[in-house]
Amino acid sequence: MKGMDKLRYQQDFLNIRPIFTAGEQEYLTGLSDRLPLSVLTGSVRNIEEIGIDFVYSSAKLEGNTYNQYDTQALLKLGQTAGGKLYSDAVMLINLRESYRHLLSGLDSPEPFDWLDFLKTTHSLISENLLEKSSGGVVRRDSVTISGTDYTPLSNPQSLDTELKWLLQEAPKIENPFDRAVYLHNNLAYLQYFKDCNKRTARNCMTLSLMRSGFFPCVFSPDSYPAYAEAVVAYYETGDYGLFKKYFISAYENTVNKYGPQPDMDISRNFSL
Questions:
Q1: What's the angle, vertex CA 232, arms to CA 180 and CA 99, rounded to 5?
Q2: CA–CA dist 205, 208 (Å, integer)
Q3: Are 218 and 40 in contact (CB under 8 A)?
Q4: What is the pLDDT of residues 217-234, one digit of tens each?
Q5: Of 1, 15, 10, 8, which Cα lies nearest the Cα of 166?
Q6: Which listed residue, 48, 79, 201, 222, has the most CB atoms within 10 A of its CB?
Q7: Is 199 annotated as a binding residue?
Q8: 175 is in an annotated binding site
Q9: Residue 187 near residue 201 (C-beta atoms within 8 A)
Q10: Domains of the chain, with CATH numbers?
């Protein structure tokens, strides 16, 4: 059927196109000026605490049932939460390991080996969630995605070709916000791995921003409906519009949450 063709994989989605307007790019850059990357990288405590937020957010976007307190107890004390799936704990621990690997990529020289980073990240994220033979390697089976009729490619050679193209094109994108969203949306769209594709895509988006000198975008853990809607809209139309709206809102929230705040005026009258 002609209408169904639109939900098959479309090669031209991976072509470089403008994503954010000049005004939106200026706005995002202005936001980033309020929250320099050094707020994260210059503090061991912030690396850990913001890292836990990043892990928690990414897990919640995948339906993880741990709350923030449970996540803190697991990642800081090694305590699993009663009544929760073991796989939820594994997901969080894997995301922490992938976050640590992400940080190690900040100082790697150019040209950066995105293929190695991508495959290593997926191996870390999928550890004990997929069979070991599926970690960091192209899938060989067809997949379906809940919530959409979009059907990704199923041929491993085609997936390899498209991933090579994607990773070849991304560095050509000059604007760092465009480049980060391009990586996220198209890695999620390609569905190169058997599972854990969006988690891997979010890590790539994060590292792309950080290697460009920008504070990463930490998505709200409560924003799953909006995130899923924006991602599915891209799968089905190739239109970045809904996702970039989601991203801008998420970056505003990130800056408001982590940006340095001026101290309130405090004065006291001491009687001698």
A1: 40
A2: 5
A3: no
A4: 999 999 999 999 999 999
A5: 15
A6: 201
A7: yes
A8: no
A9: yes
A10: 32-257 (1.10.3290.10)
SS (H, E, C) the chain: CHHHHCCECCHHHHCCCCCCCHHHHHHHHHHHHCCECHHHHCCHHHHHHHHHHHHHHHHHCCCCCCCHHHHHHHHHHCCCCCCCCHHHHHHHHHHHHHHHHHHHCCCCCCCCCHHHHHHHHHHHHHCCCCCHHHCCCCCCCCCCCCCCCCECCCCHHHHHHHHHHHHHHHHHCCCHHHHHHHHHHHHHHHCCCCCCHHHHHHHHHHHHHHHCCECCCCCCCCCHHHHHHHHHHHHHHCCCHHHHHHHHHHHHHHHHHHCCCCCCCCCCCCCC
Dig out the tokens for 78 from the structure.
């090694």
Percent of the residues in the chain that have a pLDDT greater than 70, as a whole number: 97
Task: Please identify which residue in the block is written with the tokens 């307190």.
Answer: 69
| pLDDT tens track for 88-134 | 999 999 999 999 999 999 999 999 999 999 999 999 999 999 999 99
d(CA 234, CA 116): 26
- Tell whether 195 is in a known binding site: yes
For residue 6, say whether it is annotated as part of any ligand binding site: no
| Residues 115, 148: Cα–Cα separation, whole Å | 28
Decide if 50 contacts 218 (C-beta within 8 A). yes
59 belongs to an annotated ligand binding site: no
Which pLDDT value is given to residue 271?
73
Check if the beta carbon of residue 80 is closer than 8 Å to that of residue 69.
no
Please give the structure tokens belonging to residue 103.
């940080």
Q: Apex CA 60: angle with CA 56 and CA 62, to 5°? A: 125
Does the annotation place 204 within a ligand binding site? no
